[in-house]
TrEMBL record:
<keyword id="KW-0812">Transmembrane</keyword>
<keyword id="KW-0472">Membrane</keyword>
<protein>
    <submittedName>
        <fullName>DUF4350 domain-containing protein</fullName>
    </submittedName>
</protein>
<dbReference type="Pfam" id="PF14258">
    <property type="entry name" value="DUF4350"/>
</dbReference>
<feature type="transmembrane region" description="Helical">
    <location>
        <begin position="273"/>
        <end position="291"/>
    </location>
</feature>
<dbReference type="InterPro" id="IPR025646">
    <property type="entry name" value="DUF4350"/>
</dbReference>
<feature type="transmembrane region" description="Helical">
    <location>
        <begin position="6"/>
        <end position="27"/>
    </location>
</feature>
<keyword id="KW-1133">Transmembrane helix</keyword>
<feature type="domain" description="DUF4350">
    <location>
        <begin position="45"/>
        <end position="229"/>
    </location>
</feature>
<feature type="transmembrane region" description="Helical">
    <location>
        <begin position="206"/>
        <end position="223"/>
    </location>
</feature>
Length: 408
């Protein structure tokens, strides 16, 4: 077999990978050392001047919650998949240069707020459909990269007991609100022109916060002198004890209007390094097909696959225990299998099945706490009783199967 084409393809691929990594490292080093914020990413893992790494790392200190969850999909899709968003007491933070959404996303945001949740949006320019639904208008002004320190944000809520003027030598956002519904809107802050750029809109049982200065979340701003107080001030309006806190990393990478149909490919194609990797993979695949399209040997007949008898074995064991009428032993083994499943899937300690365990399992599996408590009570009953009736065993089996089927 002639292996020369394979060596050629491998050498070319290795050279391309080295060039991409070297070029990416040089670019990253240059960007990390500059304070230019013209192309701020507002990304939670970006440590450059225009990234939001510092603000994201501050969130656990500002909210009494179990964890900060990062969202990488459109709001409508997240709202559909994440059951906790349909209950009250959650906080959702979205920071981006410009908010490009679909009508479906906006409708989901409003439905999320209506049930008693809080949505914090910090963007230079909101989505027009969102503005129409919430009855506000925005005047566009220029965003400037200043060379000296000056005032960029002011909070005018007298209830906040801190010095509310904040400045830094970075990007200035000039947009402001020109019209709002006074019956539902409260002005909380203004920009360097003393024009309102931070408002709170009461929507049914919840609140929507709109800040036309996303640069207050950037590393350069937050880490400058005492400006961490600004982050604390604007997020202090959200519930400190929010049940779940979400940070959106999807819209910060959107630079044009969405088509309305989201696919997993959009996530992959957002990042330059991932795009390079995908196109390189396609090129290597085409080269491989080109050089290896000629068949070198006869087709080897398929070998029949072995039958998987593991399920039949489990069923046979279950039937054996059931026929022997050893309900306690069978129920005990069902409990052991369930606890092993929880440990492997959700990485939870099953030694102590208390209320903290119930809350953690409910959050990770999206199963209501009441259902989990009922299941644990049945497990406790099985462990205490030596004689388990057939009806109780069937009900216990049904409860466990429902847990398996409904977990996410």
């Amino acid at each position: 077999m002639n292996t020369k084409p394979i060596y050629i393809i491998g050498s070319v691929a290795l050279l391309l990978i080295v060039l991409i990594i070297a070029g990416g490292n040089l670019t990253t080093n240059r960007e990390e050392q500059t304070t230019d914020m013209q192309r701020s990413s507002f990304y939670s893992k970006d440590k450059k001047a225009g990234g939001a790494y510092a603000a994201f790392k501050m969130l656990p200190q500002l909210f009494y919650s179990n964890s900060i969850q990062v969202v990488t999909k459109p709001f409508a899709r997240t709202y559909e998949k994440e059951a906790q968003l349909k209950y009250s007491g959650n906080a959702y933070i979205l920071v981006a240069n410009e908010l490009f959404t679909t009508e479906k996303d906006v409708d989901a945001m409003l439905e999320y707020a209506a049930v008693g949740n809080e949505l914090f949006i910090a963007v230079n320019m909101p989505d027009p459909y969102l503005a129409k639904q919430l009855k506000f208008a925005v005047v566009e002004s220029s965003n400037l990269q200043q060379k000296k320190e000056s005032l960029v944000q002011y909070y005018k809520d007298e209830a906040v007991p801190v010095d509310t003027n904040f400045s830094y030598p970075g990007m200035i956002s000039g947009n402001y609100f020109s019209g709002t519904d006074s019956s539902t809107t409260t002005v909380l802050g203004s920009n360097y022109k003393n024009k309102p750029n931070f408002i709170r809109i009461s929507y049914s049982r919840g609140y929507i916060y709109l800040l036309l200065n996303p640069y207050t979340f950037t590393n350069y701003f937050v880490l400058h002198q005492r400006n961490v107080k600004a982050l604390e001030t604007q997020l202090s309006y959200l519930q400190y004890g929010a049940g779940n806190v979400y940070w959106d990393d999807f819209y910060s990478s959107q630079h044009s209007a969405q088509s309305g149909d989201f696919s997993e490919w959009q996530v992959l194609m957002r990042y330059p390094s991932m795009r390079w990797a995908l196109w390189l993979g396609v090129a290597l695949l085409l080269l491989y097909v080109l050089f290896e399209s000629k068949r070198r040997q006869r087709i080897i007949p398929d070998k029949p696959a072995f039958n998987n008898t593991s399920l039949e074995f489990v069923d046979a064991i279950g039937q054996l225990y059931y026929q022997q009428h050893n309900n306690y032993n069978l129920a005990h083994k069902m409990i052991l299998h369930l606890l092993e499943y929880i440990r492997n899937r959700y990485y939870l300690n099953t030694n102590i099945l208390n209320e903290e365990f119930v809350a953690a399992l409910s959050r990770k599996s999206a199963i209501p706490e009441t259902d989990i408590r009922q299941l644990l009570q049945m497990m406790h009953h099985v462990q205490l009783e030596e004689n388990i009736s057939d009806d109780y065993l069937k009900e216990f089996y049904k409860r466990i199967q429902l847990f398996y089927l409904n977990t996410k």
